[in-house]
Each structure stands twice: as structure tokens, then as C-alpha cells.
Design a protein that fits this description.
Helices cover 22% and strands 30% of the residues. It is of the alpha+beta class.
């Protein structure tokens, strides 16, 4: 590359970086990261404000436009991310950089500690690599979801995202901007791994999300609780526990159990939920066989297949939960 071209390219890349990071975060949500139980290898997602984030969101039909991998660095939870040169950023700061503070946290369902360690090591080997504005899967530069994809593929031999050609995505409304990023080309055959391609991989389970419901998400009556639910009930610094709950056809609690990390099973004796109509959020209170009372704030999401929320018990413990409705086959 000639000196003149370098001089012209430098402000161009600066302009693109401004597009990546620019934009105002309106009404930022203040979420306490102490509520989360994060493990090395977890993948976190957010939406970055600015032109580039808006284009990625529209092209992929998803608010998930940026992602990174959780690692513990100097004893504290950090995210390794490609946003400019690959870097560490504390989880606390990372949560604040997303639009309105919204985020999602996902975790692989079946993976060994050795595989996680290998994936983290691979991700850390990419520190300092430049950001790839052309979104190619080569090893010269790297973008956010490419980092997560390659870390798991090369470190743990796990493919966590499906490759898609740009031409198969919703690119048509953004041809001018795409050509700008690609130096005039329109690389419709280019294969890429998008953040949402990783998020929708069935290998992952949703640990928590603060993203609001999509505009087409229905509102629910209490009868939507009918059926059996199973999921994680996380307590910071402790092994997440599994809980199951069952509701009758009217949405009234029938039974439930909390399965602790040491193998102990604690029965849920009662759960009180006020009847609701045309809502996505509700509150409840449960008491288990240890006579511990717990208040929950919950949200029904994903076409009624998942309930997420926060909890706090009368012993001062608190955390988040994510339950999935079980199919007849799963029961």
C-alpha cells in the first residue's frame, strides 16, 4: 500500500470506528452485575448504538449486534471482545457500553472444564488483533462473533455458530453502507458468523437477558404458566441450582423442587402469583421446605416458552433465573 493510500485509509477507518462506537444511550438500564453468576466461556451479547450497530441489527433481524466471551482476569469477570483491537474489558464497564444497558448471557449446555479452558486460551491468543470491518473469516483481522466462533472451534473443537452468506441476509436496504465498508465491493458470497447465529445455537442455554420483548411478542394471561418448567436458579459464587415447577391449566401452582449443587432436593411448598391478563411481567412469592421465603419478579418471553427474572430471599440472597417450558417429550 502506498503512503498516499495509507493516509487516505487512516481517516476512513477512524470514521468507521466512530460509526461503531457512536450514538447516544437513552434511558440506560442500571443492572447490578452482582446478580449474575458468570463463568469463563459464557457468551454475552448487547446492541451497540451508532450507524454500524443499526445496520447489523437490520441485516440480521436481531438486536444482538455485538458479543464477547467471559473470562476472569486478575480475579475479576471481564469480557474479551473485538471492538477495535481485541481487548479485555471489565464486565461492569462492558454492561454500560451497550445501548440502554441491555444484554443477554448464554452458556454451553454440555462442555468440560478442559474445553472451556482451551477456548478461553484461544480467545486470549487473539488479544491485540485489529478489528475486521470487512467481516471476513481469515486470520488477518477479526470481528466480535468471529472471535467467539474461532475460540470455541479451535480451542475446544465445538462449532457454536452457523456460517451464512451476506446475500442470504437482509442486506438490500444497506447496499451503500456495505460497499463503503467493503471498499466498493458488494461481497454477497462472503461467509460470516453473526452474533445472532451464535445466540440461536441450541448448544447454548439462556442464563439471563434484559432485552425487552420484540414488538410482535404477545401478551399473556396467567394460564400461560400451565405446564412444567425447568431451568437454572443462579446464586453468585455458588454452583447454579436447577429448579422445576408445574402449574395446572389455570396457571395455579401444583408442585416444584429446587435441586441444590450438593444433590439435596428442596421442595417448594407454595407459590403465590396474582392473576394477570395481557401482561408479560408478573410477581410471585414462594416458600420452600426450609421455610425460606423468596420474592420473584418475572417476565414471560419467547412466545411463552421461557420465563426469566430476578429473585431475593429473606436470608439476603439474590440472583437471576431462567426457566424453559418442557415439552411433553421432555417430561
Amino acid at each position: 500500500m502506498t503512503s498516499a493510500k495509507r493516509i487516505l485509509r487512516a481517516p476512513l477507518m477512524l470514521l468507521v470506528l466512530i460509526c461503531l462506537l457512536g450514538g447516544k444511550k437513552v434511558g440506560e438500564t442500571q443492572f447490578d452485575p452482582a446478580l449474575l453468576d458468570v463463568k469463563d466461556g459464557d457468551v454475552v451479547f448487547q446492541h451497540l448504538p451508532g450507524k454500524l450497530g443499526a445496520v447489523i441489527s437490520d441485516v440480521t433481524d436481531s438486536p444482538l449486534t455485538h458479543c464477547g466471551m467471559i473470562v476472569h482476569h486478575n480475579g475479576e469477570p471481564h469480557v474479551i471482545e473485538a471492538i477495535g483491537p481485541v481487548r479485555y474489558i471489565s464486565l461492569k464497564k462492558w454492561l454500560k457500553q451497550g445501548d440502554k444497558g441491555h444484554f443477554s448471557q448464554l452458556r454451553l449446555k454440555s462442555v468440560t472444564d478442559e474445553q472451556i479452558a482451551a477456548a478461553v486460551k484461544e480467545a486470549e491468543s487473539l488479544l491485540g488483533m485489529p478489528y475486521d470491518f470487512q467481516y471476513e473469516l481469515d486470520d488477518k483481522k477479526i470481528y466480535c462473533s468471529e472471535l467467539v466462533y474461532k475460540a470455541y472451534l479451535r480451542g475446544a473443537e465445538i462449532e457454536v455458530g452457523e456460517k451464512e452468506a451476506l446475500g442470504d441476509l437482509n442486506w438490500r436496504n444497506h447496499e451503500t453502507f456495505i460497499r463503503f465498508l467493503a471498499g466498493g465491493e458488494l461481497p454477497l458470497e462472503r461467509q460470516m458468523v453473526t452474533p445472532v447465529a451464535i445466540a440461536r445455537n441450541p448448544r447454548f442455554k439462556l442464563m439471563y437477558s434484559t432485552f425487552p420483548a420484540r414488538k410482535d411478542e404477545p401478551r399473556y394471561d396467567v394460564e400461560s404458566l400451565a405446564g412444567k418448567w425447568r431451568g437454572d436458579y443462579t446464586i453468585k459464587d455458588l454452583v447454579p441450582v436447577t429448579a422445576t415447577m408445574e402449574f395446572d391449566t389455570r396457571g395455579k401452582f401444583v408442585s416444584g423442587d429446587i435441586h441444590l449443587g450438593d444433590g439435596t432436593k428442596v421442595a417448594i411448598r407454595e407459590m403465590q402469583i396474582e392473576s394477570f391478563k395481557a401482561q408479560r411481567e408478573f410477581r410471585g412469592r414462594l416458600r420452600d421446605s426450609r421455610d425460606i421465603d423468596t420474592d420473584v419478579e418475572a417476565r414471560i418471553r419467547d412466545e411463552g416458552r421461557r420465563i426469566t427474572g430476578t429473585w431475593r430471599d429473606d436470608h439476603g440472597h439474590r440472583g437471576v433465573f431462567s426457566f424453559e417450558k418442557q415439552s411433553d417429550e421432555a417430561r
